[in-house]
TrEMBL record:
Keywords recorded for this protein, A-Z: Metal-binding, Nucleus, Zinc, Zinc-finger
Highest taxon above the source species: Eukaryota
Keyword Nucleus listed: yes
Protein name: KLLA0D07260p
Cellular component, GO annotation: Set1C/COMPASS complex
One Gene Ontology molecular-function label: zinc ion binding
Record flagged with keyword Ribosomal protein: no
Species the sequence originates in: Kluyveromyces lactis (strain ATCC 8585 / CBS 2359 / DSM 70799 / NBRC 1267 / NRRL Y-1140 / WM37)
InterPro entries the UniProt entry points to: Spp1/CFP1, Zinc_finger_PHD-type_CS, Znf_FYVE_PHD, Znf_PHD, Znf_PHD-finger, Znf_RING/FYVE/PHD
Record Pfam families: PHD
Main subcellular location of this protein, as a coarse class: nucleus
């Protein structure tokens, strides 16, 4: 991977040769109090302005990797020959003008209930729903106790079903040729077959990796607590490694990984912190709760897409009912009523 056009070539200097001051970032200037972010790969600090990152994103950084680490010039990819790391961001509040992290405790896609109301209100205001009480519909959309089946029927009390069109062929063509309905159906199909499917695949990858690192830790403790030729002490504590990997990639089998890790640990001068891109620190504050955070982030993304899917189900149902009513009224107006001369 190459460096962005705005990023200069890597400069390893840590101090200004004239003043002796510590220098940072791609600009190699001292810290003047300007907003900066620390790289999780090379531990250098970088100015938001130099990285072309707007300051409004300051609270959304979860795991940051500079351009040099992302290009494999510095950091874990250079040391371990692993995959190139990438910056991870916290989930932003869905309201476009808000740059606050979503409320993780409630697993919401908004930072607050107030912004949830504002966002849904903006969606409802854009709907073209003749005869529908938008305020009542909004209240139903925000009702957290609404079941999936109830959600699918929202708004139907104002749009009666027409279940038996007088001309099924013409009615089918009406549905097929309606651009708005087709757009909603395409969005729905893409969400289910692409976006949700991708998240389910990522979920399976994470689960598989978590099981792998769990087995590594399960087999690791005896090696650290039991000196050669001695029985394991009853008071020996369980030793576990951090296990953080930015791609959740299983580098090798549990046995092969343990062999490599123990071989590196035998060197008294070794200060190894990662093996095959896997953090092997036993007390790692840097990646604390990384598994839970990653799983929660993925769960929130899935919940968000499920909510979008339910909204699309509702809009498809509403639009279909509109077309049914329009078709029914047109058919009735074209019919010759008994006793009426034409």
């Amino acid at each position: 991977m190459s460096l962005p056009s705005w990023c200069p070539r890597y400069d390893s200097r840590k101090h200004d040769p004239k003043t002796g001051e510590e220098v940072y970032c791609i600009c190699k200037k001292p810290d003047t109090g300007e907003l900066m972010v620390g790289c999780d790969g090379c531990d250098d600090w970088f100015h938001f302005s130099c990285l072309k990152i707007p300051e409004k994103y300051r609270d959304l950084v979860f795991s940051f990797y500079c351009s040099y680490c992302s290009a494999g010039i510095t950091g874990p990819a250079l040391i371990n020959g692993g995959k190139l790391p990438k910056t991870l961001w916290k989930r932003k509040c869905r309201l476009p003008e808000c740059y606050t992290e979503c409320d993780a405790n409630s697993r919401s896609k908004y930072c607050s209930k107030k912004h949830a109301v504002q966002y849904v209100q903006s969606i409802v205001d854009k709907l073209n729903l003749p005869g529908v009480d938008k305020i009542a519909l909004l209240r139903q959309l925000l009702n957290e106790t609404t079941s999936l089946e109830e959600f699918k029927t929202l708004g139907r009390d104002k749009l009666p079903e027409v279940t038996s069109p007088l001309s099924k062929d013409q009615y089918s063509k009406l549905l097929e040729n309606d651009q708005h309905l087709n757009k909603l159906i395409n969005e729905h199909d893409e969400l289910v077959s692409v976006k949700l499917s991708k998240l389910n695949e990522e979920d399976a990858v994470i689960e598989k990796y978590v099981n792998w690192i769990g087995e590594v830790n399960e087999r690791l403790s005896p090696h650290f607590n039991q000196p050669t030729g001695r029985k394991k002490s009853k008071s020996a504590s369980k030793v576990t490694i951090c296990g953080y990997h930015n791609e959740f990639t299983i580098p090798r089998s549990v046995e092969e990984f343990l062999d490599k890790l123990l071989q590196l640990k035998e060197d008294e001068n070794s200060n190894i912190t990662s093996v095959d891109g896997v953090c092997v620190k036993t007390k790692c504050a840097k990646h604390q709760d990384w598994i839970t955070l990653s799983q929660n982030d993925l769960s929130e993304q899935k919940d968000s897409l499920e909510n979008v899917k339910r909204r699309l189900d509702l809009l498809i149902s509403v639009r279909t009912n509109q077309l049914r009513i329009s078709f029914f009224e047109q058919e009735m107006s074209n019919r010759v009523l008994p006793g009426v001369k034409t």
